[in-house]
Amino acid sequence: MALQVHQRYEIVFLSQHPLGPKLSYTAVAKTVHCDLKTVKRWLKRWKQSKNLTDGTRPGRPRVTTPKQDQQVIALAEKETFVTSQDITNRLNKRGLDTSQRTVRRRLNEAGAKYNRPLSKPLLTENHREKR
Fold first, then answer.
1. Phi and psi for 4 in degrees, rounded to 5?
2. What pLDDT, in 10s, does the model give residues 30-51?
């Protein structure tokens, strides 16, 4: 599990900072509740670059921009029972080539709730007469 940024700075403070207690690697690892190798790695990075933030991670860039993500969410909020296929078709008409799966991912990231329309028929005239 990756350490949070404040824990990384705590490692540096406990072992090397002039105002810190200057603990050993093992003592710092016990205090921060992490592995000894983790302490050594972050202290080495601190000595080299003074930077403890996360680097960029590899991966494919997103197909949609944040503005296009907002369009997807707006289309979903406008209508109650719109499907991801409907949203995909509307976006493709606008010139944005996205897949149905991408639309579902963006809605999931936004915390959208999925509502399915009732699939059963309500009472018909025949039911009412029988009652």
1. -75, 160
2. 999 999 999 999 999 999 998 8
Residue 40 neighbours by CB distance under 10 Å: 15
Query: Whole-angstrom Cα distance, residue 58 to residue 1?
Result: 18
- Domains of the chain, residue spans: 5-49, 66-109
Joined tokens for residue 43: 């202290």
Listed in sequence order, the residues at least 6 apart from 5 whose beta carbon sits closer than 8 Å to its beta carbon are 52, 53, 54
Q: Which pTM value belongs to this model?
A: 0.52
**How many residues would you count in the chain?**
131
Is 84 in contact with 100 (CB distance < 8 Å)?
A: yes
d(CA 73, CA 30): 45
Cβ-in-10-Å burial (0-12, 13-18, 19+) of 8 comes to: buried
Count Cβ atoms below 10 Å from residue 82 Cβ, excluding itself.
14
Q: Where are the alpha helices (DSSP H) in 61-99?
A: 66-78, 84-93
- Tell how far CA 44 is from the center of its chain: 29
